[in-house]
Design brief:
EC number: 2.6.1.17
Structural class: alpha/beta
Largest sheet: 7 strands, mixed
Number of helices: 12
GO molecular function: succinyldiaminopimelate transaminase activity
Strand content: 15-25%
Order of helices and strands: HEHHEHEHEEHEHEEHHHEEHEEEH
Shape: globular
Helix content: 25-40%
Pfam family, one: Aminotran_1_2
Bound molecules: pyridoxal-5'-phosphate
Protein name: Succinyldiaminopimelate transaminase
InterPro entries: Aminotransferase_I/II_large, LL-DAP_aminotransferase, OxyQ, PyrdxlP-dep_Trfase, PyrdxlP-dep_Trfase_major, PyrdxlP-dep_Trfase_small
Distance between the termini: 55 Å
């Protein structure tokens, strides 16, 4: 029996452990800006919905309750600017990471098929390709890809790790190219609500997709938008033929979002106020850290959206990680997101105000 794990890269975060130990030894404690996990409270309106649905003895369905599907289609039309979304256009996910990792296999891809993703990217796109035995392909420009054997094309805007936002022309070009070559385009839009100096647009917006879901999926997550990383709440929206096939596969696999989390998702998508409040918290932390990093000698690239500052001192990323660890600040080496990140670090501004202020003080020396 061949170990599936042998197809996968070394789990990168293990390599950060020694730096974490160094940072944790700082007398005022570690400021962990590495992982990008939400730290602020789950909004009350969501917790109440979860609690009210806690008496859920029966199995939930993979497709979700009618109320959940209504909430998803409503949000897709309202927030994303899509038109004509019905229940066949949505599919609940147990957090989006499981979907990213499992999608190539659930689509039946394997040896001989190719899966493309941005050169600097969330590592799970490559992991998904490798788990399926498909060939991972990193691209700089979608339209320069060789379409031979290409079955799945990932976009990620706003991007993790760079915070880059694809503009409407770039999105339209990618959609046009994918449709021309019959390649399924899946757009990971989990940071869509977190634009700072650019307004992220969905591939499902009527002006991008031309009012048709053909050949397109968008992936959305409530982890960042609503501080729900611990709930595992996400969904895909788009092409009904692709989602119908995935629904069948996922029913057989028992990939059900727990019933209380489905209820919590309905409440979360109905409320925009908490999103605005959370955005304000992040905006403050982002500005403070950005100014401190720049004053310290960093150059910040892209970062117009998402929860990260893509930063460089024009030196190997592990040197930067080491220098910041000495200040008790832990960041992610850009190399985790591909060799092209070898001279950058990703600084998440998901720490509390108190920890962000501590980092700012330390950077100011
Ligand atoms: C680009 C991207 N996609 C997907 C995810 C997964 O999010 P979740 O599984 O919490 O929905 C993350 C998490 O950081 C991410 O950065």
């Amino acid at each position: 029996m061949s170990a599936v794990s042998s197809r996968l890269p070394v789990f990168p975060w293990d390599r950060l452990e020694p730096y974490k130990a160094t940072a944790a030894a700082h007398p005022d404690g570690i400021v962990d800006l590495s992982v990008g996990t939400p730290v602020d409270p789950v909004p009350g309106v969501i917790r109440n919905a979860l609690a009210a649905a806690s008496d859920s003895p029966g199995y939930p369905t993979v497709w979700g309750t009618t109320a959940l599907r209504d909430a998803l289609t409503g949000w897709v039309e309202r927030r994303l600017g899509a038109t004509g979304a019905d229940h066949r256009n949505v599919l609940p996910l147990v957090g989006s990471k499981e979907f990213v990792a499992a999608l190539p296999a659930q689509l039946g891809l394997g040896p001989g098929d190719r899966v493309a993703f941005p050169r600097l990217a969330y590592p799970t796109y490559e992991v998904g390709a490798r788990l399926a035995g498909a060939e991972p392909v990193a691209y700089d420009e979608v339209t320069e890809l060789d379409p031979a054997g290409l079955k799945l094309l990932w976009l990620n805007s706003p991007s993790n790790p760079t915070g880059r936002v694809l503009d409407e022309d770039e999105l339209r070009a990618a959609v046009g190219w994918a449709r021309e070559h019959g390649v399924l385009l899946v757009s990971d839009e989990c940071y869509l609500e977190l634009g700072w100096t650019a307004e992220p647009v969905s591939v499902l917006h009527r002006d991008i997709c031309g009012g048709s879901f053909d050949g397109l999926l968008a992936v959305h997550s409530l982890s960042k938008r609503s501080n729900l990383a611990g709930y595992r709440a996400a969904f895909a929206a788009g092409d009904p033929a692709v989602l119908g096939e995935l629904l069948t596969v996922r029913k057989h696999s028992g990939l059900m979002v727990p019933a209380p989390v489905q209820a919590a998702t309905v409440a979360a998508l109905a409320d925009h106020e908490h999103v605005g409040e959370q955005r304000e918290r992040y905006a403050r932390r982002r500005t403070a850290l950005r100014e401190a990093l720049e004053a310290y000698g960093f150059r910040i690239e892209h970062s117009e959206a998402s929860l990260y500052l893509w930063s460089t001192r024009d030196e190997p990323c592990w040197e930067t990680v080491g220098a910041l660890a000495e200040l008790g600040i832990l960041v992610a080496p850009g190399e985790f997101y591909g060799p092209a990140g070898a001279r950058h670090v990703r600084v998440a501004f998901t720490a509390t105000d108190e920890r962000v202020d501590a980092a700012v003080r330390r950077l100011a020396g």
